[in-house]
Amino acid sequence: MNSLSNYQTSIPSVSEKMAHFPIGMFDSGVGGLTVLRELMTLLPQESVNYFGDSAHFPYGSQSAETIISYATAITNFLVEHPIKMLVIACNTASAYALTTLQKLHPFPIIDVISSGVERAAKATRTGSIAVLGTKGTIRSGIYQQKLREKIPGSQVYALACPLLAPLVEEQLHDHPAAQLIIREYLKQLEGKDFDTVLLGCTHYPFLKDHIQNILGNKVEIIDSASACAGKIKEELEVRNQLNSHRASYRFYVSAEIDDFQKTGELFLKRPLDSVTLTAPFPVQSGSPLNYANISA
């Protein structure tokens, strides 16, 4: 091999240079930590900058236009420091903002819906699937559409469960009231014949055991958070962007920093050393939402 060839092979590719960049990830609150937890287990060397938009929780009750404006502003904030990938760790934001963000940014964007649908399609034996989600996600019809495209002739039972995500945000997911509320929602599925339940909200894995206990072991529950982590790994491998350096984690929240840190540390079973409060600027008419850093 000549000297020029030796020189060329020693130059890191763009992908290799980007490998040490963090992954950007956001959710309307703590729900996306379920994706992060799975990613920490699957790829413990990957760094993540996480944004929890607690100030605007819940996304599920807001308009598509509003959700897109929040998602756009958060992504603009995250890319102030280079990221190699964006993960929309929120089903409602995935349903409404994915296409807009893909048009605005060149890096890969992973959403929780597509990966959850793929895993549910592989898991079901009968093609009959129940989807639990926020009002916004269920109203969008995205799960119903994607599942029927993936499994022609499938039967999809879509159930909005608007109180479940707030239970998690309020750290009441292990309260007896949570089981009562879940049981009340699931009564709407009585008499329906399905073998798979897809958790269409990243807050819901906090409640997975309760849901499984009520439905019984004959029903397989698909966690879109773990499916999303698997998709992240696949994409990084294809792009040769797996990080070989030590991981670091930075957390940003738009409100309720103490509650976020408490829930995050309990759930991730590790201290959250870098949590920063960010505050929305007032939104001017016709202007996109923006964020400014405030030291916590």
CATH architectural name of the largest domain: 3-Layer(aba) Sandwich
Mean pLDDT: 88
For the largest beta-sheet, the strand count, sense and barrel status come to: 7 strands, mixed
Through-space gap between termini: 55 Å
How many distinct helices? Answer: 13
Task: Tell me what the structure shows.
This protein is α/β, with parallel strands linked by helices. The chain folds into 2 domains: 8-111 and 228-294, 3-Layer(aba) Sandwich (Rossmann fold); 114-225, 3-Layer(aba) Sandwich (Rossmann fold), CATH 3.40.50. It contains 13 helices and 11 strands. It has helices at 3-10, 14-18, 33-42, 64-78, 91-104, 112-123, 135-140, 142-150, 164-169, 176-186, 208-215, 224-238, 257-268; strands spanning 23-27, 48-52, 85-88, 109-111, 128-133, 155-160, 196-200, 220-223, 249-253, 275-280, 291-294. The strands form 2 sheets. Strands 4-3-1-2-9-10-11 form a 7-stranded mixed beta sheet, sandwiched between helices. The chain is globular. The N and C termini lie far apart (55 Å). Residues 1-11 and 280-296 have low confidence and may be disordered.
